[in-house]
Amino acid sequence: MQIERDHDLDWPWTLYFNGEPVQRWANCWNLCRFPESSREVFAEFPWLVDYLDFVRLCDRMDLAHTIESEDPVIFRVHSLSLLLLLLRNEAHVRAALAPFAEEAGIPPSAIFEGLRDGVAAMHMLTVRDQLSFWSVGYPEDQVQLAAAFQQSRLPPSPQDYVAPPHIRERNRLANHRIHSLRSELLELLRTQQHPKDFRRFVHELPTHV
Question: pLDDT for 79-94, tens place per residue?
Answer without folding.
Answer: 999 999 999 899 999 9
